[in-house]
Amino acid sequence: MKLTYLLPILLLSSPIFAQQQKADSSTKVITVKEDFRDDWADLRHYGAANKVLAPAAPNDKRVVFLGSSIFENWKKLVPEYFDNKLYIDRGISGQISPQLLIRFRQDVINLKPKAVIILAGSNDIAGSTGHVTNERIMDNIKSMVELARVNHIKVILCAYLPVYEYPWRKGMQAADKIIALNTLIKAYVAKNKLTLLDYFTPLVDSRNGQKTELTLDGVHPNVAGYKIMAKITDEAIAKTLNR
Questions:
Q1: Which residues does 219 contact at the CB level (< 8 Å), separation at least 6?
Q2: For residue 68, pLDDT beyond 70
Q3: Which domains are assigned to the chain?
Q4: Lowest CB count within 10 Å: 47, 75, 140, 178, which one?
Q5: Closest by alpha carbon to 199, among 177, 225, 174?
Q6: pTM of the model as a whole
Q7: How much of the chain exceeds pLDDT 70, in percent?
């Protein structure tokens, strides 16, 4: 074909080709990844589970376990502890006390338990920013206690498990910080007539860390450690609910 005839054909076909491209692109499905940066406390973690949880009956002695990896690992390593009981585990690994405070309404109050076990502080202490103090941890704990009480939920506060050293924070004086926090928690419990659940004493070794035979990494209990925790937890729950 001569060039004089080919050029008009090309010019005429260009708009058709462009329209076809536009039509093809308009039919493509664009997947937009949801941005959860505003959900700093990870409310979505248990959002779906809470929706399908059966409402608590008036006489149910439901207990919520609110904390971080110590509680979340418990139901993974020893799931049978939570079977056939009214124990609701709401632990999220890595969470600090202000995140627990934000979650308190969704993961505790709205579930209408008779009691809540609050285990908080270790991840705050293990943080790397240096802005956390035991007083700030206690402020968050106190706010959770006040929220529980106004909603007629009995409170069990935990003396934190012993930690000699965090594997991810070598050189930090973890043991002294944990002991100092536990001293504040015990004083607050006594002053406000709460139940103290002492996870420190039965797990501690001579260095104020966790006994080797009871821990995975010096921070988290193993199955043997959880068995000890289970016994004293059941005792604390019975004591609290029978008051």
A1: 122, 161, 163, 166, 167, 210
A2: yes
A3: 52-241 (3.40.50.1110)
A4: 47
A5: 225
A6: 0.85
A7: 86
